[in-house]
Amino acid sequence: MSITKAKAAVLVAGSWGTALASVLAGNDLDTVLWSRSKDHADELNASRMNAKYLPGVLLPEGLRATSSIEEAVGGAHAVVFVAPSSAMREVARLAAPYITNETLIIHATKGFEIENDTLKRMSTVIAEELNRNEEEIVVLSGPSHAEEVVSKCPTTVVTACRITEAAERAQDLFISPYFRVYTNPDAIGVEVSGALKNIIALGAGLSDGLKFGDNAKAALLTRGLAEIARMGTAMGANPLTFAGLAGVGDLVVTCTSTHSRNWRAGSLLAQGKALDEVLQTMGMVVEGIRTTKAAHTLAAQYNVEMPITEQLYHVLFENKSPKLAVEALMGRGRTNEIEEIAKTTKENWLL
């Protein structure tokens, strides 16, 4: 007697979506990867490769692609949203008619919605479009390059949700011998960490491109993590989350690897290329650029000090010289690191 496999839909067929779909298919789920383009979907099925985003990588036989949102989502036990932040609301709206209240909803997008100045987290956007409780949405995040995941390099991530059962269901779907998954109840902290670390990765690319050295980069990561923690705790996150995989783990991998789109974009900016030219050269979404704009506004709304983000905002959107931005950061008033950290976390957990 045949046993029906659990079905998972992954939206959309970019590099990260394809990598996550590969994990699910490798775990023997009936996995459908949705692409907006019929030609792209047909190419994926014919070649078993995503040549545009992950060239040279053969995808699992159990993975199939479609350009029909109904075919992808209909009957799925779990739907994984991996659309760019700018397209998330539209993709969720397209999927909504085919999703039931029993469907497990997961998202793995690292950014904020900046359209119409909403500055909403992706879980909020998805919940609104699906008419679901935001606390039901699972966030998947952590130090993970798509290129390494599809090559089955050891990778560890987090599934975060206030509802433990939902986080554990997502954990069960993804965990494998090379893809280890932890759970975390702090969805806000995991989500904010994933978004804001892209800003620091842009700065790391700039720093490396300008050959500022390892000392500068170490300082950038450390002080960048302090900014992320300040903003995250102001938004209601648990400060301990920032010391975990979704916080420092994701920050390190994104700021130190040429796989990182945000690092590469920062490096191109250091070469004197204009922002439009950088985006054209990249040919893919660079979430950190949009997130810098969002975080600059959020910092003012929450009255949170984010000096690295502020200077990157000036570089990206006001044509400030990166070297002048560094001078502004180095010339800031004196402060006490430990007192600042304790104040940031709202509790003396490091003292």
UniProtKB/TrEMBL annotation:
Name recorded for this polypeptide: Glycerol-3-phosphate dehydrogenase [NAD(P)+]
Function: Catalyzes the reduction of the glycolytic intermediate dihydroxyacetone phosphate (DHAP) to sn-glycerol 3-phosphate (G3P), the key precursor for phospholipid synthesis.
Residues the entry annotates as binding sn-glycerol 3-phosphate: 110, 142, 144, 197, 250, 260-262
Main location: cytoplasm
Catalytic machinery residues: 197 (proton acceptor)
Transmembrane segments: none
Domain (Glycerol-3-phosphate dehydrogenase NAD-dependent N-terminal): residue spans on this chain: 8-165
Highest taxon listed in the record's lineage: Bacteria
Organism for this UniProt entry: Paenibacillus gansuensis
Catalytic reaction equation(s): sn-glycerol 3-phosphate + NADP(+) = dihydroxyacetone phosphate + NADPH + H(+); sn-glycerol 3-phosphate + NAD(+) = dihydroxyacetone phosphate + NADH + H(+)
UniProt xrefs under SUPFAM superfamilies: 6-phosphogluconate dehydrogenase C-terminal domain-like (SSF48179), NAD(P)-binding Rossmann-fold domains (SSF51735)
Presence of keyword Membrane: no
